[in-house]
Amino acid sequence: MGASSYPAGPRLKVGAHAWHVFLARTFPEDPCVEWRTPQGEIGQGPLSLLPEAARRGPIHVWSPSPETLLSVAPWPGRSRRRLAQALPYLLEEQLLADPAALEFSYRDTGAGVFVAVTAKERLAAWGAALGAARLRARVCPVTFALAWHARSWSCCVRAGQWVLRTGPLSGFGAAGSPTQIPAAVCQAFEGAVKAGRAPEVIVVFEGDEALRARITAAFGIPVTADPRPLALGQVPPFDLCEAGGAALAGGRAALDALRPAVIALSLMFVLGFGGTLIDWMRLARAQASLRAQMTKVFRGSFPHVPVLDPARQMRAGWARLAAGSGAVGPGLLTLLASAGPVLAGLKESTLMRLTYRHGQVHCLMRMARLSTLRALRRDIGRRGLSMRVVRVTSRRAGIQVQITITGSGP
Questions:
Q1: Burial of residue 373 (number of CB atoms within 10 Å: 0-12, 13-18, 19+)
Q2: Is 232 helix (H, G, I), strand (E, B) or coil?
Q3: What's the rounded Cα separation, in Å, for the pair 212 and 209?
Q4: CA 294 to CA 355: how far, in whole Å?
Q5: Has domain 332-406 been given CATH number 3.30.1360.100?
Q6: Which residues contact 322 (CB under 8 A, 6 or more apart)?
Q7: Secondary structure (DSSP) of 255-295
Q8: Per-residue pLDDT averaged across 133-160, rounded?
Q9: What pLDDT, in 10s, does the model give residues 183-198?
Q10: Which CATH number fits domain 19-249: 3.40.50.970, 3.30.465.10, 3.90.1150.10, 3.30.420.380?
């Protein structure tokens, strides 16, 4: 099986005229890169030596695969803002660094939200080097420089790194030499077998007969060779420097291109702020008029009571009237008797503040992870109570949440 050749099939026209630049893990500390022309010719050297012809066409920059974590996160919601806040918690078991130091690039797919996680420091270093060389390029992990077919894995071993593409938007990289299969690759294959998603064939790029025989012996499935040059006809499915909101690769040229849009947005902001200020002044006058009317009504109803806050005093009066008629809701002791054991039994959480107002218990808590909040909502519901999440704020050691607990009614 190892000697057979994988059929090349029809070549893609999209991206056929693109130049490809491959970054090493030591870039930009070591400025040397490898590039390939649209005709497959190979060159090496710093970005400043890239031929001028490359600057007149599209450039695809392929970053080291181990520098980017590729994953799919389940997200049933629709809010983009909440998704960006929740990603560090959805992927917390896969992250090895502080989420504040990572850039999360994401987009919706049919199976969930595809996420690419890269250290901000590395992205900034790549973007600065590309900007200094006056290059505008798409930056994408070298994982997607490998052509992929359904029910297969694509593999390449280059510069001391194993690169595998296991799906349209999945794959990983692992350090290792061609003489020994890394443990991460073996574990990934075993996991695919247990999940029923094992590949039927592994396609090897730029590998010799010995490498293909070694993979066949380890996994017991056909291993074939693809003779095409790496990245030929492949277009990056996303751009690390744009999907996460950071336009790094364009440098000064990208800023110049965005200048008209920035000016237009600034004018819109100034005009919008002016309109908002006028609306605020109009509403302030309306509030003063309504407050004067409420004060007049309150003094007419309660002439011997000093006026502090008419709205609050009226609500208090209605509450007293409701209590006198027998319509009494659950009090503080009743709510605490039901919710207290749940709050006290939470693990890896701290109750920072608890207040009671108008039949509601307001709690400010600090939790280690988002799953604790979901467990609290479930347990509060089992007690016959209702819980509303007011605010969730990310903190270095977890999250800070503000919740409101109310009873089920009289």
A1: buried
A2: coil
A3: 5
A4: 28
A5: yes
A6: 328
A7: HHHHHHHHHHHHHHHHHHHHHHHHHHHHHHHHHHHHHHHHH
A8: 89
A9: 989 999 999 999 898 8
A10: 3.30.420.380
* Structural domain spans, the chain: 19-249, 255-324, 332-406
Kindly report the backbone phi and psi dihedral angles of residue 49, in degrees, each rounded to the nearest multiple of 5, phi listed first. -95, 0
Q: Is the confidence at residue 66, as pLDDT, over 70?
A: yes
Sign of CA pseudo-dihedral 18, 19, 23, 28: negative
Residue 395: the pLDDT is 82
For range 280-307, the mean pLDDT: 82
The pTM (predicted TM-score) of the whole model is: 0.53
Tell me whether residue 264 is exposed, middle or buried, using C-beta atoms within 10 angstroms of its C-beta: 0 to 12, 13 to 18, 19 or more: exposed
Distance CA 285, CA 268 (A): 26
pLDDT of residue 224: 92
Measured between alpha carbons, how far is 236 from 121 in angstroms, rounded to an integer? 21
Q: Which token pair is 392?
A: 């969730």
- Are the C-beta atoms of 93 and 170 separated by less than 8 Å? no
Asked if pLDDT for residue 217 goes beyond 80, the answer is: yes
Mean pLDDT along residues 263-277? 84
Lowest mean pLDDT among 21-30, 229-238, 323-332: 323-332
Give the contacts of 243 (CB within 8 A, at least 6 positions apart).
Answer: 105, 106, 107, 116
